[in-house]
Amino acid sequence: KNKKDIRVENLDKLLNETYQAVRARIPQEDFKQLIQSELAWLREVEAYHKVYEKQEYGTIRTLMNYNYEINMRNFRTLLLMLYL
Description:
Shape: flat
Strand content: under 5%
Low-confidence stretches: none
Helix content: over 70%
């Protein structure tokens, strides 16, 4: 695997571990709200990809998308950590 894949994999793992830690710690009612927030976040990410794919950024396109993927995972993980 290349360095890019490993970094994204590690961030996904941290995001999932943080999500599970929050799930185990907060009341069920709060967790239901968190699920709605997670679904909204996923819709936002998907919407970005639809807009992004229509753009013509040339050779920098891959780097821009990679940076977006990294930043979104980092940001969501930090938001989840606020519950801990």
